[in-house]
Amino acid sequence: MKLGIMCASQNELRPLTGKLTNSTVSSYLGREFFCGGYHGLDTVVVMGGVGKVNAAVTVQTLIQCYGVDTVIFTGVAGGLDDSLSLQDVIIGTQLLYHDLPMELVNNNDMFPEMPRDCFSSDPALVELCRGLGKHLRFGKIVTGDAFISGGARDEIIRQHHPLCVDMESAAAAQVCWFFRTPLLVIRSLSDFADDDATDSYEENIGDSVVSAAQVLDEVVRKLAEQK
């Protein structure tokens, strides 16, 4: 196995690179790719940037240029379910766009085997997350090219009833679908995508990144045990 771990921002990257042993760094497409060992697994860690296009470019590069065969996307997200708390960790079992209907993603069945409703994390990788903590939830994550705060929140909830919203996961999942590459999405809540989202994000991103990274660490440990 060769594992690719990606995130969207520098804040999310810092806890990841420190886990690597014997690491080297290479640059491609403006990104730094950190290659090394993580619990004994050959691993590449990269910050891809914010948004769907950045996520898609980064996943494709990990697969085609760095040879990874499993991808984990980790970072923060905005909560959209009243039962959740800040720093709760969401495992994205269903991944779809809130700003692009799936029927347009696969208009006229251009890709006949593409899922009609949503993309998903790999079921075997999702199972590795079971039992990793009481603040762990499994469910739907929606993605779009906007930082959601205030008014847009209610409409996304009405249409999709997701646990949280981010700006990358569904795009990463779509690329992984094309390459038949297993994906796992791990997101910790930094805000609630409401009127206070910007301030909450700045206040909580540090703790939320750590929460997601702790779950990631346990998942990678389990993957290493299976090797």
Question: What layout of secondary structure does this protein have?
Answer:
Layout: E1 2-7, H1 10-17, E2 21-28, E3 31-38, E4 41-47, H2 52-64, E5 70-79, E6 89-97, H3 102-105, H4 123-128, E7 136-143, H5 152-160, E8 164-166, H6 169-179, E9 183-191, H7 197-226
Parallel strand pairs: 1-4, 1-5, 5-9, 6-7, 7-8
Antiparallel strand pairs: 2-3, 3-4, 5-8, 6-9
Walkthrough of the structure:
The chain has 227 residues and is α/β, with parallel strands linked by helices. The protein has one domain: Nucleoside phosphorylase domain (Rossmann fold), CATH 3.40.50.1580. The chain is 36% helix and 30% strand. It contains seven helices and nine strands. It has helices at residues 10-17, 52-64, 102-105, 123-128, 152-160, 169-179, 197-226, and strands at 2-7, 21-28, 31-38, 41-47, 70-79, 89-97, 136-143, 164-166, 183-191. Strands 5-8-7-6-9 form a five-stranded mixed β-barrel. Helix 1 (10-17) runs parallel beside helix 7 and helix 2 runs parallel beside helix 6 (169-179). The longest helix is centred in the C-terminal third of the chain and has 30 residues, at 197-226. The N and C termini lie close together (7 Å). 44% of the residues are buried. The mean pLDDT is 96.
Globular, elongated, flat, extended or rod-shaped: what is the shape? globular
Mean pLDDT: 96
Point out poorly predicted stretches.
none
Main β-sheet: number of strands, strand sense, barrel status? 5 strands, mixed, barrel
The residue fraction in helices comes out at 25-40%
Distance N terminus to C terminus?
A: 7 Å
Strand elements, count: 9
